[in-house]
Amino acid sequence: MYHYVRPKDEKFPNLFRLDINSFKKQLDYFEANYGFISKDSFIDSIRNKEKKNGVLLTFDDGLICHYKNVFPELKKRGLWGIFYIPTFPLKHNKILDVHRIHILLSNCNVQEIYSYLLDMDIEKIFDKNKIDEFKKLTYINQKNDQYSLIIKRILNYYVKYNERKKVIDELFNEFLKEDFSVKDVYLSIDNLKEMQSEGMIIGSHTENHQVLSKLPTKIQKYEVENSFQFIESKIGFLDVKTFCYPYGGFHTFNNQTEKILYNYGCDFSFNVEQRDISQNDLVNRVHALPRFDCNQFKYGKSSNN
Ligand SMILES: [Zn+2]
C-alpha cells in the first residue's frame, strides 16, 4: 500500500511522502526478493480462491503523484497496480478533509496548530464515545512527529463529523495564505481513463473517505455504491470490482460493510493488516484482505525532509 510518492515540492514543503528514488529502489527490491504477480494470475487467484505468490501494488486516494510518478514507472517496467479512488473530489471539485489536513501539516507550524486546537472548546467538538476506542488503534505504524500525530488523531477521529469541516475551515483561514486546488492534489478522470487503458485497475475508495464503521448502514451503502457508479459512469464498466476501506484496520468497517460489498458484486476488498493473503482469506473473507504498508519493507519509509 502506497500513498504519496513524489519529490520534495515547494507547494507542499513538509509533506510526508515516499521519494520517487526510494519507490524505484523498492520496486527493484521486490523484484529481486519476491517477484510481482501478474494481473491475470492475481484475478485467477481471487476467482478460483487459490493462493498464489508475488507482490501486488496498490495506491490509495487518487493522488496526482500516482499519475505523474507511479504510472510511468510501472509502465516502463511492464508492471500493473490497483488505484483506489475516493470520488468526492472528482465529482465536486473539492479537496477532501483528510487531504486538507495533510496540507495543513505540510505547510504550517504544527505546534501552533496544536495549541490552537487545545484552545478550542474540546468538550463541544469531540465525539466523547469514540476517544478510548480509537486511542490505541490509530496510526500505530506511522512515523510522524508528535504534534502532527496528535493533530491527525484529533481531526480524523475525535472531532464529531458535523464539527470537523468547520474546524478545518477555521484552521485553513487562520494558518494558510495560499489557495490549493483539486488539481494540486488529485489525478483527473482523463488520467484514470489512460491508466485503465494501459492495464491498471481502478477501484473504489468510497465517495467521502470517511470511517465507514461510524456511519449508519444506509450511508455506508451509498458510499460504496455511489463511488462505483460514478467511476463506471466516467471510465466505463469495471470488469473487476475492487474496494479498499478508508484509513483501514478492523475498527474502520463492520459486518454490514462486508455484506454491502458482497451484495454489490464487488470481487475483493483490501483492509490494512500487516500480513500476507492466506488461503483462508480467499475462501472465507475476501472483503477484508490483509495488506502491508510499504513502510514495512526496505526503502519504503516516508519522510518530510
Ligand atoms: Zn485513503
The CATH superfamily name of the largest domain is: Glycoside hydrolase/deacetylase
Number of domains: 2
| Low-pLDDT regions | none
Largest sheet: 3 strands, parallel
**Mean pLDDT rating:** 92
In one word, what is the shape? globular
- Strands of the largest sheet, in order across it? 1-2-3
What do you see in this structure?
This protein has 305 residues and is mainly alpha-helical. The chain folds into two domains: 20-87 and 186-296, TIM Barrel (Alpha-Beta Barrel); 109-175, no CATH class. 49% of the residues lie in helices and 6% in strands. It contains 15 helices and five strands. The protein has helices spanning 20-33, 39-47, 64-77, 88-92, 97-107, 110-118, 122-125, 128-135, 146-158, 161-175, 182-185, 189-197, 217-235, 255-264, 279-284; strands at 58-60, 82-85, 201-204, 242-244, 268-270. A three-stranded parallel sheet has the order 1-2-3. The protein has a two-stranded parallel ribbon with strand order 4-5. Strand 1 (58-60), helix 3 (64-77) and strand 2 form a beta-alpha-beta unit. Helix 5 (97-107) runs parallel beside helix 10 (161-175) and helix 13 (217-235) runs parallel beside helix 14. The longest helix is centred in the last third of the chain and has 19 residues, at 217-235. The radius of gyration is 19 Å and the shape is globular. The model has no long low-confidence stretch (mean pLDDT 92). The chain binds zinc ion. The site of zinc ion has 5 residues, from loops.
Give a short synopsis of this structure:
With 305 residues, the protein is mostly helical. It contains 15 helices and 5 strands.
